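This section describes the prediction task in plain terms. A model, or a person checking by hand, is given the sequence of a single protein chain and must write out its three-dimensional structure as a string of tokens. No templates, partner chains or ligands are provided. The sample shown here is typical of the held-out split.
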Amino acid sequence: MRYGLHTATGYATTQAGTAGQIADYVEEIFDATGRRAGFMLGHSQCGPRDQLQSIVELLVPELQRRGRFRTAYTGHLA
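The expected answer:
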């Protein structure tokens, strides 16, 4: 049951740390997997709202500074 709970909630792959530490982790995994399709950032639906705010305000800018996350969207809106 514990394995199922950890898998369903994403807890098994949860990382904690500063924005720089998490950016290091994301870069390491990204480079190790051949950069095929990019990466997805998420937060737990049942976690505190400030988790998403931390991703947007701290982690994304750090990844942008490193050139790993786009700073603008190109293309056309539907």
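For orientation: Helices lie at 2-9, 19-32, 50-65.
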